[in-house]
Amino acid sequence: MEQPVFDIVNLDFYYGQMHALKKINMQIMPRQVTALIGPSGCGKSTFLRCLNRMNDTIQGAHVEGKILLAGKDIYSLSMHPTQLRQKVGMVFQKPNPFPQSIYDNVAFGPRVLGLTQDKASLDVLIEKSLRQAALWEEVKDSLHQNALELSLGEQQRLCLARVLAVEPEVILMDEPASALDPIATLRLEELIAELKVAYTIVIVTHNMQQAARVSDWTGLFWLGELIEFSDTKAMFTRPQKKISEDYLTGKMG
Amino acid sequence: MHSLRPNFDRDLNTLFDQLLAMSSLVDQALERSINSLTERDTAAAGGVIADDTHINEMRYQIEENCLKMIATQQPMAGDLRAIIAVMHAVMELERMADHAAGIAKIVIRSGEEPPLKPMKKLMRMSELSRQMLKEVMQAFVKRDEAGARQIAAQDAVVDRLNKQTVERLIDVMTKHPRAVPSATYMMWVSHNLERIADRVTNLAEQVVFMTTGDYRELDR
User: Fold this and answer.
1) Mutation choice for B interface testing from A218, A233, A236, A251 by most B CBs within 10 A
2) How many other C-beta atoms are found inside a 10 Å radius of the C-beta of residue A40?
3) What integer pLDDT is reported at residue B119 of this predicted model?
4) CATH number of the domain that residue B131 is part of
5) A6-248 maps to which CATH number?
6) Considering only CA atoms, which of A76, A92, A94, A89 is closest in space to residue A164?
7) Does residue B218 lie within any of the structural domains?
8) Rounded to the nearest 10 degrees, what angle do helices B77-109 and B180-212 cross at?
């Protein structure tokens, strides 16, 4: 059996006194899409942000338990957050391109991390990333156009290309389609299906149909607890816990 | 619990009401077809066949309502299973009505044949099938898994009665060659009743699916 990419063991997370995540245990499998669902404030985004230590800068926040990435504790002193975030990239709810050219947006990470030796190899990496993000054909003749001139759907795919350019292992997506129209949403979902061949994807979504469509595994969070974690087909057709059933059928939420 | 989705609950209740109404028409069709057989009433048999169209239309109407709910409400988990179970159930009910119409057609075709003494076992099969139908519909609306399993177990009794009927009719045909046409018609009746009980078992399987998510063939 394949080893999990992330092995989360007894994870507790606190915002000061507030116990936001309670004894979470979960394994995230390689090259699979894991969806996290649950009502607002249930802890799913907090959990996602624990996976690449995006919560580190929040005052009073602290973590107990372990998050192992390929067997290594990401909260250990030897793990530098920058190094972690190269391996575990993130796409946010609202597209957040830098107010720079399309090219410079994608080149940003590789330049900071010194991933390429010269302009030619950087060009190759940028084209590859934009192709993977299904944006190349639309922008190949306007790479030096300001990224903020792109449509929202294109901006979100650009942000994805920016993540892909640093060659991560895992892509975290926090409600990546919530600002997109239905067509751009479907394109993003198609893209997720293509990307999972090479990447492990964890996606937080409020849209349960989206979780059902794109994911292999689904975790349902409720008041900081992981109520149920199972393969997506089982979760949406025969959930085992009453809370899951009631949430999925809209009897509470 | 206060429902956050009154519209959905109302639509689902309507769907179950329509299903019950349809099952009641199927039960009547079955009763009328068996009565037409015992009374040798070809006019009544014709009525069963004519009314079958109405039952077919009900099936399509309920299926359309299910499709509308799936398309507009995107049901999940237990709700999705309930709607899928209703879609299967209306198909089974519609086929049961076809079997009732099948018996009515036999009554019309056998009108010229000398009457064969009505067989107690056929009557018993018809009573049992109708009872099973009523009970399975109760289990359906109550989402009673255990009840559904018990009803399915009764199918074995109908199967046994069918086997005994067929054996008895073969015996009649062997001893009285002139009775072959009548006995053959009776065999068809017996087969239709046996199939009706099988379809009750299919309905019981839908109750189990709706309540547990398991697709399982129940003991026959």
Assistant:
1) A251
2) 8
3) 77
4) 1.20.58.220
5) 3.40.50.300
6) A89
7) no
8) 170
- State whether residue B3 sits within 8 Å of chain A by CB: yes
Residue B42 covered by a domain: yes
Residue spans per domain, chain A: 6-248
CB B201 within 8 A of CB B154: no
B200: in domain? yes
**Is ipTM strictly over 0.90?**
no
For residue B23, being part of any structural domain is answered with yes
Closest among B213, B65, B207 to B142, alpha carbons compared: B207
81-140 in B: which are within 8 Å (CB) of A? 81
Is the pTM above the cut of 0.90?
Answer: no
> What is the rounded CA–CA span in Å between residue B74 and residue A179?
21
Residues with Cβ within 8 Å of A115's Cβ and at least 6 positions away in sequence, in order, are A109, A125, A165, A166, A167
3-state SS assignment for residue A61: strand
Report the distance separating Cα B37 and Cα B103, nearest Å. 8
- Encoded tokens for B136: 């399975």
- A165 contacts A109 by C-beta, under 8 angstroms: yes
Do the chains contact at A212 and B213, CB–CB below 8 Å?
no
A208 contacts in B (CB within 8 Å)?
74, 76
In a 3-state reduction of DSSP, which class is residue B127?
Answer: helix
Residue B15 corresponds to which tokens in the numbers above?
């769907």
Chain B residues touching residue A251 (CB < 8 angstroms): 1, 3-5
State which residues form the domain around B195: 6-212
The dihedrals phi and psi of B77, each to the nearest 5 degrees, come to 50, -130
Any CB–CB contact under 8 A between A244 and chain B? Answer: yes
- Which residues is A7 bridged to in the sheet? A27, A68
What tens digit of pLDDT does each residue of A72-106 get?
Answer: 999 998 999 999 999 999 999 999 999 999 999 99
Nearest chain B residue to A253, by CA: B4
Tokens of B83: 């709607």
Contact of A214 with A237, CB cutoff 8 Å? no
Q: With CB atoms and an 8 Å threshold, state whether A248 touches B77.
A: yes
With 0-12 / 13-18 / 19 or more C-beta atoms within 10 angstroms meaning exposed / middle / buried, residue A93 is middle
The total domain count for chain B is 1
What the block records as the tokens of A178 is 């919530």
pLDDT digits (tens, 9 = 90+) for A225-243: 999 999 999 999 999 999 9
